[in-house]
Specification:
389 residues; 12 helices; nine-stranded mixed β-sheet; Purple Acid Phosphatase, chain A, domain 2; 17 strands
Length: 389
């Protein structure tokens, strides 16, 4: 055995190392545990997001907010992506438009003999179910007494009691731009406006083309109505201004005109010039009256100009042309305009749907002189055509 060397003062012996080792091991283990916990709970989450956190973010985040995590989740699980909501379908606006409406002279005589509803008794179903029912009011509702019954009398006044009657049949808008609205002067015209207002019936136009357009919004579609009477003021400057102003606010602009030559089966060239100017200014549809007979339609720049709808309710019976008129059922949506042609006939001073034979004759006469493609003429013959917006 070797001899154990003596320890110098200050040197540690084996016992001392054993004691220190026993004390250091717990401390080392404690430090290691602290470092491991710090890594797990403080450092690692910042470096690698866990899967549950991504799903929670997708679920809790509003659908309108897109985050990078959401995009990854949508790629991984596309079946969970919400389908886009379908755009709501707008129901078309349906307008039933007619020509000249008279409630005086022999029409009044028949109303007095029968009932206020007499002119429309055979036409109720045709008038029902539309958003707007429109006609040219060929006279005014006034407190004045009518002229003595005479076929040559052309000064018309309508009994104010009949306002509620026409309203009950669906009429809710009238054109007042014509040569008869002031048959009983300015006062008579003002009275008519008052009675229409009281009944809640809309109107537009006047004798001198001084009024502004009427704007209606139905089913989210805005429609402007403008009247033009060439017999009060033949100039069109104010009407063109009206059209341009309405164009800024409306989806559709409809101009109802009182123009042309009476009893002519074709339109007057001056009406064509004005009609085209109205379209150039922004009109979408032009409805004509005054000639008392149905005249052709022209499609100009993809816009229809109905030069005359003829008589609707009137007491003229001296020819086929004056006793047969045309209604136009207009359906408007954001993309197209549909026109259904409804030939009418006066019998015993009551308006009726024309017979099949008479309807074919009216539409054939109309198509013959219409200014449009042959395709549209063929559609006119069968009573319906469509034009894109």
């Amino acid at each position: 055995m070797g001899r154990r060397l003596p320890l110098r003062k200050g040197h540690l012996g084996c016992k001392d190392f054993d004691i220190m080792a026993k004390r250091a091991i717990p401390i080392f283990l404690l430090i290691t545990a602290v470092l491991a916990a710090g890594y797990l709970f403080l450092i690692r989450p910042c470096l690698v997001p866990t899967a549950p956190e991504i799903k929670t973010a997708v679920i809790q985040t509003a659908p309108s907010i897109s985050t990078p995590d959401q995009k990854v989740e949508n790629i991984i699980e596309p079946e969970k992506a919400a389908a886009p909501a379908p755009e709501p379908q707008t129901r078309p606006v349906v307008i039933m438009a007619f020509g000249d409406l008279l409630l005086d002279r022999y029409i009044k005589r028949e109303i007095d003999r029968h009932t206020p509803d007499h002119p429309f008794e055979n036409f109720k179903e045709t008038l029902a179910g539309h958003d707007l029912v429109l006609a040219n009011l060929e006279g005014s509702f006034t407190d004045y007494k009518p002229r003595p019954l005479n076929p040559n009398n052309t000064s018309f006044t309508f009994d104010p009691k009949l306002v509620e009657m026409v309203k009950s049949h669906g009429f809710n808008i009238f054109n007042l731009a014509n040569n008869h609205v002031q048959d009983f002067g300015k006062q008579g015209f003002v009275q008519s406006q008052k009675y229409l207002d009281q009944a809640g019936i809309g109107y537009f136009g006047d004798f001198y083309n001084e009024g502004k357009f009427l704007l209606r919004e139905i089913n989210g579609i805005k429609i402007a109505f403008i009247g033009y009477n060439e017999f009060g003021d033949a100039a069109i400057a104010s009407t063109l201004t009206n059209i341009k102003e309405a164009r800024l606010l409306a989806d559709y602009v409809i101009v109802y005109t009182h123009w042309g030559a009476e009893y002519q089966n074709n339109f007057w060239p001056g009406s064509q010039v004005k009609g085209r100017r109205f379209v150039d200014a922004g009109a979408d549809i032009i409805l004509g009256s005054h000639p008392h007979v149905v005249q052709p339609v022209e499609i100009y720049k993809n816009k229809p100009i109905f030069y005359s709808l003829g008589n609707f309710v009137f007491d003229q019976i001296f020819s086929f042309e004056v006793s047969h008129g045309l209604g136009v059922k207009i359906s408007l949506d954001k993309e197209k305009m549909e026109f259904e042609l409804v030939p009418t006939a006066m019998k015993n001073f009551q308006v009726n749907l024309a017979s099949e034979e008479d309807a074919a004759k009216t539409l054939a006469n109309m198509a013959k002189y219409s200014v449009c493609r042959q395709e549209i003429k063929d559609q006119i013959m069968v009573g319906k055509f469509t034009i894109g917006k």
